[in-house]
Write a structure and sequence with these properties.
With 135 residues, the protein is mostly helical. The protein has a domain of 77 residues: Multidrug-efflux Transporter Regulator, Chain: A, Domain 2, CATH 1.10.1660. 64% of the residues lie in helices and 0% in strands. The chain is built from six helices and no strands. The protein starts with 9 loop residues before the first helix and ends with a helix. The relative contact order is 0.08.
Length: 135
């Protein structure tokens, strides 16, 4: 049985993981975390493993993985299927590179529009609004 010092309430777990309680509950509803049993008349207690799991989820999210992708990664959590994990990371890297290229195109388009707005100020209709109406 877990010692009280090694278990925590959902609030303490959330604080330790840097999330709010609703985030923990959301992860439980999504199947990313199990909800511990509630002892008769007691409060659910979360182990250090639960804290590690929340931190894993948050780290994966910071790298751009969706919750569905994280669910797949959690199945590889024991580290024994490194090739499959690498494949998922390579796929994510490709997605990130595509998004970066899209963002660079957006940046260039906006830069051009902003410059047009500066040079035509007050003489014609707003170039930004005109461009958006064209699309």
């Amino acid at each position: 049985m877990n010692e009280p010092s090694k278990t925590r309430t959902i609030g303490v777990l959330a604080d330790a993981a840097g999330v709010n309680v609703e985030t923990i509950r959301f992860y439980q509803r999504k199947g990313l975390m199990l909800e511990p049993d509630r002892p008769l008349g007691g409060i659910r207690r979360y182990s250090s493993a639960a804290l590690a799991r929340v931190r894993f989820i948050k780290s994966a999210q910071r790298l751009g993985f969706s919750l569905d992708e994280i669910a797949d990664l959690l199945q590889l959590e024991d580290g024994s299927q490194c090739a499959e994990a690498r494949e998922k990371a390579e796929h994510k890297l490709t997605d990130v590179r595509v998004r970066l290229a899209d963002l660079q195109r957006i940046e260039e388009a906006l830069k051009t529009i902003v410059e047009r707005c500066r040079t035509t100020s007050g003489r014609v209709k707003c170039p930004l609004i005109a461009v958006l109406k064209e699309k």
